[in-house]
């Protein structure tokens, strides 16, 4: 029976100039004042073969830090170790404002990109993504602003995050620059992109797919299920972890690496965003490339998540 095997080789980021690792490192929990420790986390990701770093201007308040804190910390790392910047394809996001919540007006997008560039201490953000869609700005205005930012050299490529297929399509229609990526939540516990057209649309148009929270918001780590969840959720989580664990044991890897591998196996070329801030856990993410699947094995994990057989 044919096997779906995984490659750690870098690949194009959609229709852009950038070559990126199949895994990305996410910086939602990139926090603190210890620049040396922050640099060690960045170096752990690079040592694991990850050259694709994904941050956002809104990363900070969830860690009881100011808006922009994650970007500012990465900027301090770049200042302390300037050689790191050239090794990284740097992605960030904007368009969320505290208390608004969404703003893609031309004035704010330019302001947000300029602020991110300042915090990061860089001249260009390689991939800049609209973090969530703003329903009060026409897509033609959004597109014209993004095209202007590309032309000015402030951003290298344009992506979207948490967009529906219709929203992505509407923005793409007005853009002169290519829309190179989309970032939905995707994991063995968050299956919507399989069924709502997101992955099919991305394959149709050659977009890269970045899957946020590939461990189901941490529930698919290598520990016990979080207590206090509803019984039905616990039963589903137990089923999925058991299926991932059994498959991973065949290759000597843990549940987390097997979950990354399951995401990587989809033909859309999904890039799981590794969220751990633990250098050892970041290193373990590369174990995903030791895993392979038959079609039956991959579908068995999907069935475990759905709780019913496929038609």
TrEMBL record:
PANTHER family named among the record's database cross-references: NADH-SPECIFIC METHYLGLYOXAL REDUCTASE-RELATED, OXIDOREDUCTASE YDHF
Protein name: Aldo/keto reductase
NADP-dependent oxidoreductase domain: residues covered: 23-300
A Pfam family: Aldo_ket_red
InterPro entries linked: AKR_Detox_Biosynth, NAD(P)_OxRdtase_dom_sf, NADP_OxRdtase_dom
GO cellular component, one term: cytosol
């Amino acid at each position: 029976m044919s096997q779906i095997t995984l490659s750690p080789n870098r690949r194009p980021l959609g229709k852009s100039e950038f070559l990126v690792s199949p895994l990305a490192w996410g910086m939602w929990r990139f926090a603190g004042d210890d620049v040396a420790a922050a640099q060690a986390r960045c170096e752990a990701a690079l040592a694991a073969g990850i050259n694709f770093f994904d941050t956002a201007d809104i990363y900070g308040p969830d860690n009881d830090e100011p808006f922009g804190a994650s970007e500012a910390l990465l900027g301090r790392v770049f200042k302390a170790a300037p050689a790191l910047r050239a090794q990284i394809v740097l992605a960030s996001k904007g368009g969320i404002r505290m208390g608004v919540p969404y703003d893609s007006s031309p004035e704010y997008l330019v302001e947000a990109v300029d602020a991110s560039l300042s915090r990061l201490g860089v001249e260009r953000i390689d991939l800049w993504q609209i973090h969530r869609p703003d329903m009060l700005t026409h897509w033609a205005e959004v597109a014209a602003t993004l095209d202007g930012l590309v032309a000015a050299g402030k951003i290298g490529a344009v992506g979207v995050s948490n967009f529906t297929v219709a929203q992505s399509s509407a923005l793409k229609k007005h853009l002169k620059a290519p829309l190179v990526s989309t970032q939905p939540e995707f994991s063995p516990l968050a299956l919507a992109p399989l069924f709502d057209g997101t992955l099919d649309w991305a394959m149709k148009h050659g977009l890269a797919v970045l899957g946020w929270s590939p461990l189901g918001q941490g529930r698919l780590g290598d520990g016990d299920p979080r207590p206090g969840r509803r019984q039905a959720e616990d039963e589903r989580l137990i089923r999925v972890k058991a299926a991932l664990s059994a498959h991973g044991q065949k290759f000597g890897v843990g549940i987390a690496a097997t979950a990354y591998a399951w995401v990587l196996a989809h033909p859309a070329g999904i890039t799981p965003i590794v969220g751990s801030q633990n250098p050892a856990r970041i290193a373990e993410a590369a174990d995903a490339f030791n895993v392979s699947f038959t079609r039956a094995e991959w579908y068995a994990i999907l069935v475990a998540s759905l709780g019913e057989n496929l038609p």
